[in-house]
Amino acid sequence: MVRGARKFLALGVAAAVVYSIKELNFVPGPRHAAPVAAAAAASMMMAPAAFADEIGDASKKLGDASYNFAKEVDWNNGIFLQAPGKFQPLKALKAIDKMIEMGAAADPKLLKAAAEAHHKAIGSISGPNGVTSRADWDEVNAALGRVVASVPKAKVMAVYDAVKDITDPKVPAYMKSLVNGPDAEKAYQGFLEFKDVVAKNQVTAASAPAVVPSGDKIGAAAKQLSDASYPFIKDIDWLSDIYLKPLPGKTAPETLKAIDKMIVMGAKMDGNLLKAAAEAHHKAIGSVDSKGVTSAADYEAVNAALGRLVASVPKDTVMDVYNSMAKIVDPTVTNNMFSKVNPLDAVAAAKGFYTFKDVVQEGLIQLKRRLLKVALEGRGIYPQMCKQLWIRRCSITPFLAPHPMQIYAKVMRGIDKAAFPGTCQGRVERLIKALSRPLSSDRLPMKAGGLKNLQEHEWFEGFDWNALQAGELPPPYAPDVADDEDLSNFFADPKDIPETAPYVDPEDGSGALGRRLCHSGLKTHSLFEISRRF
C-alpha cells in the first residue's frame, strides 16, 4: 500500500539524482550508463560485504574518485524525505513496485551481506555531514554492485524508467549546486567505469520464485488479523503526504539509529521468506485501488508473509527495532494518526494484531526448540572434523553458554562471531571458519576444487597425504605397553576429562548431569552417570 511506499521514497530521491544526471549532460557519458545508475541507487536498501573479486577491486577505484564528493553531501538533509518532483503517490508506488521486484530477484545471500555492510558503515559515520569511513564507503559500493549484478538487466531498466517518470528534471541541477561541481563530475566519471564492471558480471536470467509456506499457524492467524483489521485499513488515507513528514523533534542521526536496528533485523531474516514477502507486496500493489487500498486477499497474504518473516528472526532483535522506534516516535504522532480513522476499527485492528503477534512469537519459540533438538541430537551445522578441532585445540566449545537460549543466540550469530581463545587462533581459526559455514555449499570441501581445498589449506602444511592414503603414515604417538592385554593407554588423563555440570531443562525443570557437546556447547543427558572417561 501507499503508506509502505513512503518509507522507500527517500531512496527514490537519491535514485532520481543519479538517474537524471545523464539527461542534463551533468557529465558526458554513454547512454548505457543510466540503467546501472538506476540499479545502484535503487539497491541502497540491500548491500553485501566485499569479497576479493572484480567488483570489489572496481569499488576501490570508485572510492578514489567519489569519496571527496561523498564528504561534501549533507546526508542529514531533510530533502531526501521529499518527493523528487510533483507529489504523485500512486505513480511513485509504481516506481517502488519496480524496486521491490528488483529486490525479490536479487541473490538472498548478497542481500544479507548487503545489510551487514550498511550496518557496519552506519557504525563509522562521523562529522557534521554524517559520512561513513572511506573503507566502509568502498565496502558498500562493492555490495551495491554485487546486488545489481545478481539481477537481470531488464529489471534494472524497469527501475530506471519508473523513477525517471516521477523525477523533476530540475532536481539534479539543484542537487549539484549543493556540492563542489568538479568533485561531483569526477565521482560520476568513476561511477561510469564502475558500472561497466558490474554489467560485465551481471546475470541474464532471474532466480526462481520463493517457496511460500501454507497450512501453518501463522497463515491461519493472518486471516484472523486481516478480517479484524481490513475495515481499519480502508479508513486510512494512503494518499496523504503526511508519511513524508519528519518525526517531530528528532534529528537525522537519532532516526538513523532506529533504521540501523531495522537493517540488522533484515540481515537475520530467512532469505526465502524475505523473497516471498517481497513477492507478496508486489502482488498486493497490483490490486491497489484509486484510494491506495489493496484487496482483502492480498492484504492477508502480506500479513502472513510478514509474520513468517518476523518469526525467522530472534526475539531480541525484533524487540531492538520496537524499542528504538519507541524512542523516536512522540505520543502526539500516535494520537494524530488515531484521530484520522474510525476509533472502533482501530481498536479492533489492535486486538487482532496482539493475537497475531502471539502466534508469530510461538512460531519463533518452535523454531528455537527445533534448533536445540537438532543440536542435542548431534546434527548441528558443524562437520565432525571441525568438532574435533574445537575440542582438541580450543578446549572450549564454540557456542558455550549456561542456558540453551543463550546458546541459540550464539548459533544464530554464526561462527564468525564465535570467540576463539589464544590456542585456537591463526591458521586453525581460519580452517574452522572455512569448514563451518551455515550453508554446506559454502564450506571449504564443497567449493570448486573439492577435497583438494582441504588438503592444500595452510593448517595442513607439511602433512603427507600420500603416506596417509598408502597407510604408511607414522603414528604421532607410540605408547609403551607391557603386553597385548595392557589397556592402561586407553584411560583418560584426569586433566583431559570434560567438564561435568548439572543441567536443568528450562521448560520442565528436570535435570541430569551431562557432558558438553563440542559442536554446540549443549550437554547430553547421562542417564546412568557411570563414567567420566572419553
UniProtKB/TrEMBL annotation:
Keyword tags? ATP-binding, Chlorophyll, Chloroplast, Chromophore, Kinase, Light-harvesting polypeptide, Nucleotide-binding, Plastid, Serine/threonine-protein kinase, Signal, Transferase
The record, for InterPro entries, names:
AGC-kinase_C, Kinase-like_dom_sf, Peridinin-chlorophyll-bd_prot, Peridinin-chlorophyll-bd_sf
Query: Which spans of this chain does the record mark as coiled coil?
Result: none
One of the Pfam families matching this protein, by short name: PCP
Cellular component GO terms, alphabetical: chloroplast; light-harvesting complex
**What start and end residues bound the annotated signal peptide?**
1-20
Q: Which residues form the AGC-kinase C-terminal domain?
A: 461-534
Q: Which GO terms describe its molecular function?
A: ATP binding; chlorophyll binding; protein serine/threonine kinase activity
Localization, per the record, is: Plastid, Chloroplast
Top-level taxon: Eukaryota
Major place of localization? plastid
Q: Which PANTHER family match?
A: CGMP-DEPENDENT SERINE_THREONIN PROTEIN KINASE-RELATED, CYCLIC NUCLEOTIDE-DEPENDENT PROTEIN KINASE
Function of the protein: Water-soluble antenna for capture of solar energy in the blue-green range. Peridinin is an asymmetric carotenoid.
Q: What is this protein called?
A: Peridinin-chlorophyll a-binding protein, chloroplastic
